[in-house]
Amino acid sequence: MIEIKNITKSFGKQQVLKGVSAVFDTGKCNLIIGKSGSGKTVTLKCMVGLFEPDSGSIEFDGRNITAMNFKERKEVRREIGMLFQGTALFDSMTVEENVRFPLDMFTSQSESEKRDRVNFCLKRVNMENTNKKYPGELSGGMKKRVGIARAIVMNPKYLFCDEPNSGLDPKTALIIDHLIQEITQEYQMTTVINTHDMNSVMGIGDKVIFLHEGLKYWEGTNKEILSITEGELFDFIFASDFLKDLRRRAKF
Amino acid sequence: MLNIFEIFGKYLLLLGRCISRPEKAQMYWKETFRQAHEIGIGSLVIIAIVATFIGAVTAVQFSYQLKSIGLVPMWWMGSILRKSMILELAPTISALLLAGKVGSNIASELGSMRISEQIDAYEIMGVNTPAYLVGPKILASVVVVPMLAIIAVFLGIIGGWLGGVAGGYFSTAEYVRGLQDMFMTKDLNIMLIKSTLFGFIISSISCYKGFYVEGGAIEIGKASTQAVVMSSIVVIIVNFFVAFLLL
Ligand SMILES: Nc1ncnc2c1ncn2[C@@H]1O[C@H](COP(=O)(O)OP(=O)(O)OP(=O)(O)O)[C@@H](O)[C@H]1O
Ligand SMILES: [Mg+2]
Asked: Contact A176/A168 with Cβ under 8 angstroms?
């Protein structure tokens, strides 16, 4: 479980986060949704420690990382996996080298243990037999899958995904979503996903947090979200007039 | 805008963060060798061509002038060429070439890693990014640049011989006599000091420029241009001070 309390973050004069508090549950896909520019990425980067929040606390199962020094943070980081918005695969390395990099750097496993682990993770994301390819030779969806394989290779307790299915066709997006959901449940990870894709919300939104103008505007499950009939969240979910109209006529 | 002191402070902090106990020494060595290979082998051809021709043109022009004065024996040319290659031409010209080639390479590599969030990805894994990404580049450059300068000296001297003999200014025997005359180890030491410093200057400035890129592709381009310009200027200034202090 990750708990953030009253996080604020400004860039210059612009206050992006104005005191966001939320709880992200273990074994669930916790979604952060919101319009482009609403601060989803900033929230995620604060949580993983790439940005320093101006105030507030972030607790990973009770361990407050904002109060930690560099060394203690490094220990927590070993338990974090992250899939970046642009995948951030190391483009000078092959797929295999990408996935095994954390093993090379942080474990003393034998060559064959590492190879098995890499192959297991690649197989888990249906990317076996691409070991020797370079990221430049892969499609967007394939890169995301390799990104997921790299994120889970160290058996993380916490998985962060920044828009895992942006730029993918609806069907591939669905496959990626379900992959993340399955892995989350299988390994009982605390997964936090940024998205503005309503298909993802409906598909895997065990818990949904809606950010608006730097504040948590709404929180609930994907079951509850459809009952919204007005306000900012309504505008967000039913983005087109066509959908809004459809919703108003619906009987639930 | 950062002022010059802030920039220098940030630069020193980055260098400071490179000094730390590596998570896994083996990975750092691997990266250092990869960089050394890239910088060394990658720059060998251009250094070779430029050094040979600089040697040749120095021989021809110097001989031409000596001849017109007429009072100086032509076998001096060997010694003049050796001295100017070692003291000035080899270290400085190879440093300027490397500032262009290696400097822009390093800055754009790190810059695009920054923009595409690869540096963040390392950071998330718990890698000390300055130590892993900047440290090996500086170390490799400090070792490889003096080696390239030594190669440049040899090729420059060979170039001088070819140029002078082909131009009919001196004979091979005269040139060799000059080369053997009054050799000073001090000159060689100064060259090694210079080129080690230049290797450090080029790599550290370019790493700094690349590591802190913000924005997009245009900023990567700007950063690599700035890396080249900055490191060339600092190389030239430091070159003067080393000559001033050590000669
Ligand atoms: N490094 C930064 N420096 C300055 N401002 C920033 C920085 N990162 C984000 N911002 C600002 O913070 C605000 C929120 O950005 P953020 O990237 O979190 O949006 P987002 O919700 O992830 O949007 P999207 O869905 O488009 O990815 C934006 O207005 C942006 O300009
Ligand atoms: Mg974002």
From this structure: yes
